[in-house]
Amino acid sequence: MRTLFRASSSLLKDVRADLERPHAFAAERVGFFLCRAGRLGDEGVVILAAGYHAVEDEDYIDDPRVGAMMGPGAIRKAMQHAYNGGAQDIGLFHVHMHAHPGLPGFSRVDVTEWRKFVPDFFNAVPDMPHGAVVLSLDRAAGLSWRRREDEPVLIDRFAGVGAPLRLWKGTP
Length: 172
What we know:
By secondary structure, this protein is of the alpha/beta class. The protein has one domain (2-169): Cytidine Deaminase, domain 2 (3-Layer(aba) Sandwich), CATH 3.40.140. The chain is 22% helix and 36% strand.
């Protein structure tokens, strides 16, 4: 099954701008894409980034072992945003950026931490895919969980829709 992730070019630009802002002690910023999802026939799922929720300054924990550490308030607020989607269920995709051109990779810390907290998103919105995305200056890579009990799958393709239109594979 294929997994496609689409966002408007303007949303991607805004998210990158937010993630590039300096923080008082965190080496990087993090946030959450607010997403809807649809079927691609029997072939897979399309994830549509409909918005963005930035992690507030006070929701970072000062932990020099990692680039950014979110406190429980950050995850709770993002889950509340998704839950408040009501009839229009919202999936959460954690996002951060590696500020270089080309395909970003996942660090060991990324994958370890995502496996800890992404399945919790299903407590707020059980019927939507959730996951994590790493942006670079011009591309993205990510993982998606379709159900809490599933192993994550690589997001196959990304699209920045609008001006400029950008398409890229999420894997090398």
